[in-house]
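Record 1 of the preview.
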Amino acid sequence: MGRERRGKLVSYCPDIKVVDCTLRDGGLVNNFAFTDEFVKDLYLANIKAGVDYMEFGYKASKEIFNPDNFGKWKFCDEKDIRAIVGDNKTDMKISVMADVGRTDFKKDILNKKDSVIDLVRVATYINTIPAAIEMLEDAKKKGYETTVNIMAVSKVNDDDLDGGLELLGQSSVDVIYLVDSFGAFYPEQIERLCDKYLNIAAKYNKKVGIHAHNNQQLAFANTIEALSIGASYLDATVSGMGRGAGNCYMELLLSFLRNPRYNKVAIMNFVEKHMLKLKEEGAVWGYDIPYLLTGILNSHPSSAIQFIKENRTDYAMFYQELIDNTL
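->
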């Protein structure tokens, strides 16, 4: 028997938190080259929409990544966030993401009392969980809420995943995220995995989040599947903007959630003003056959991104290349 589903379609769950990842995941599409007007308008739209957290981007190391090659949201300097939000005298919280091995977290993540950031999200692979825990404990000591995203779990065997979840359960992290990095999962798999995450969460008093990718047009379906059995932190991006096939559409998610505090109108107005223009200017993301193929084969989307950049349309040949590479 599967886990009992909570609520009906017409009900709402008060512990739900919606996290807007447009600047961070969407920034992977355009090297974080968003205008200040875009960022400010997104901030105001998210507040009006009732979004709980807005992720401004990464805390990436300037020793590893050359700031000349990226917009400022690759680094999320305190002064840049404050230029948009001031002291953020709103109910919406501010978040940033830090990748294991790609951030000078001890130096670049300030003490909470000196920062307008509320939540530090750590992204890790299964084999770097001890390093992730060091980062999480550092952020917790500094006064932040914390989440951890275990990436590429579609490539991880059950024993390793159980061991990693147990380690994270014993840490001080607040939320453990189920991440479908390659858009490879179907709702039944999300149900099984989410159940595993929720069991650890219940044992150690944590919450569970979901971050889905749209390679098979299932990011929204997988998000509401996870929500229905107990995940409470839900990631989405405006117009699904994100690397490759993109993410769960914020417009879809806010339309589904029945809590009256969520309002999709402000997001639709933002789409009209900014997202259509971004696409016109040449930003490319969203469902496409190459991403479908990498999703089906549980492969990193980098080869599909390259295929699209080269304006190739020989899908069958690409499919064969992917199969050959997975053998």
